[in-house]
Amino acid sequence: MSHYHSRSRFFAGRQAMSRREMLSTSSAGFGGLALAGLLGQESIAGPLSPKAPHYPAKAKSILFLFMHGGPSQVDTFDYKPQLMRDHGKPLPFPKPRVVSGKTENLLKSPWKFRQHGQSGAWVSELFPHVAGCVDDLCIVNSMHCSNS
Questions:
Q1: Nearest-angstrom CA–CA distance, 142 and 119
Q2: Are 116 and 125 in contact (CB under 8 A)?
Q3: Is 0.70 surpassed by the pTM of this model?
Q4: Over the stretch 96-106, which tens digit does the pLDDT of each residue have?
């Protein structure tokens, strides 16, 4: 069976998705935001439509990494002192419905964290060279999701 026929059989019964739909739904809609900026259309981005910036933009490009199975934010740039304190204690909330591993007690990061640069951004010892240029990065620690 040819490659084309095996693919068409895999997609049989599924509705084709336009490029615009794919960009607005993949990688948490990040591609849709980029497309909206390129096309100057706010309707694609919906509630995340760009607003007038406080300062003129300096960034020429964005590198968006979605690393399924990549290093955890708790091991890289999201220092959690309370998690360090409560290491080994039982979860203070109901166990998640969907887990990727055994969920028992709280587990701290095995890496040590220190503040770096003028910004005082927390960076783990996992990235010693990144820590040296942390003031050139934009680190977003306010995103969250639910697996329930």
A1: 16
A2: no
A3: no
A4: 777 666 777 88
